[in-house]
Amino acid sequence: MVNVLVGLATSFIGGACVWLWERGKRSRLLRRKADFFGVVPGETCLVVIGNKHNRRDVATHKDIRAIIEVATLASQLGSDVVTESSNDFRGSNDNRTEFCIGGPLGDANVRTGGHLATHLPGFTILPWGPGPESVAFIVGGERYLWDKGNVEHALVAKFTPPQASRPVFLVCGQSSLANQAAIHYLKRDHRDVAASLSSTDRFCLIIKLAGIGTYGFQNATLERDVTDTAFTRP
Question: How do strand 80-85 and strand 44-49 relate by DSSP bridges?
């Protein structure tokens, strides 16, 4: 009888230790994820929504999916979400982590344009046009071309404006599909990306999306860390 009781007690204690260890491990993973994205559990995230190219107050289907990606991320990390239109929202993000989604061309997201000009002077996006350099990204002397539906890129940057206490997480894709792909990729592989960075407080990355015809938005990879050049005026 004593052996049975000892066995039961040992099993209970062992099971409790495993449960506590797993819970602690999950908590650590969530904290690291929250730190990477700049989300504070219990606080509010601000999502700034852009327009379809040259279509004011019309969001693309894929940008809506990107917003849903952010909303599910915030929910997982214990944060609420509010949204603002880039057409109307002005001012600081203050004490709210801001996710600003969409590129500036065609007034798709004018707030993105402001963030780029103010905080990322080493980054240039070429205008839309008929040539091969349409919507190309230029940073650090490199050009990242837009081959629509084949190879596309997104710039992802995190920084904290001087007047704010929470960061801006900027997602500027060459297309709405690239926006969605970048967020999906970073949600999935943020630990590997964080391990490659010198700091998760401020960074700027080029995300590459390839094999679109086969994998859609799910084949994104980290192309290059351009932190040093993007935040520096040429």
Answer: parallel
Tokens of 179: 């926006």
- The pLDDT assigned to 24 comes to 52
- Read off the pTM: 0.86
Q: What is the CA radius of gyration of the chain?
A: 21
Q: Tens of pLDDT along 36-51?
A: 999 999 999 999 988 8
